[in-house]
Write a structure and sequence with these properties.
By secondary structure, the protein is α/β, with parallel strands linked by helices. Helices cover about 45% and strands about 15% of the residues. The chain has a 5-stranded parallel β-sheet with strand order 1-5-4-2-3. The longest helix has 12 residues.
Amino acid sequence: MSTALSVEDFEDHRKANPKSVVIDVRDHEKFEEGHVPTAIHIHKTKIAQEIADLVPDKTTEIFCYCGGGQSGPRSAELLHELGYTNAKAITGGYRALKTAIKKKL
């Protein structure tokens, strides 16, 4: 099962399901420098401890991203291990998201 999707697919999913949850797993400083609007910040080391309180419904569509594409996929996999059935990672992380935004301008 692939848990990764492209920036374009992420944008399509968000439009179709605006109640989906976006989780930024980067360090707090990076999150403060910029992040996806409406993203929840949960550091990658705290997902297991914090996710149940923030997203109690394990069928919620969740998108994880990091800076460049390593921790986001690991976080999505961890969510699957915790019973979340609809967690995905954004391929390329925040860098890919910023690049896609610049191309649209």
